[in-house]
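User: My instructor asked us to take a sequence, write out its structure as tokens, and then describe one feature of it. I'm not sure where to start. Here is the sequence I was given:
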Amino acid sequence: MAESAQADKLNAQPRVTVLGVGNILLSDEGVGVRVVELLSQRYAFPDHVRILDGGVLGVRLMGIIGDTDILIVVDAVCNQGAPGDLYRLADHQVPRRVLAKQSMHQMDLPEVLAMCKAIDHDPRVVVIGVEPEDMNTLDIRLTPAIAARLDDLVSMVLAEMDRLEISYTPVVPPRISDNP
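Assistant: Let's start with the prediction itself. The structure tokens for your sequence are:
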């Protein structure tokens, strides 16, 4: 019986969480949330993959992050580039960039990751991001430069799925009949 449980564990798929973070009330700060909304609308993923809006939950993300093996964070990343520049940060790049605490929700993300590590749960983290243009204006709309990069960010997340050999399928929108 123990061999069967061990074999199941070895064959189990990694628990993957795609977490969009940011404040949708502050223009480009909400880009991560907008990307996960698009992913949820456009694609179906296997049961071991969760696509979640983490908003500005900060420390309250501990349970979610504690229950994942691979964490893909989608967010605005201030890296002194041009607005719309895209980034993929992984491994040793993540702590340096995330610890920069460029926005309110990022004040808690490094602490949550540190707490997970302290309880012996250290998920592999990849950050998919875009250089924001404006994260200070109270506006639910993304700036045009960042809105124009949404499909590219979605593609970057899907490329991560491909790297992980995780299948996904496009969701076909219902057709509107010509006849009422």
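For the description part of your assignment, you could build on this observation: Residues 4-8, 103-107 have pLDDT under 50 and may be disordered. Try explaining in your own words what that tells you about the chain.
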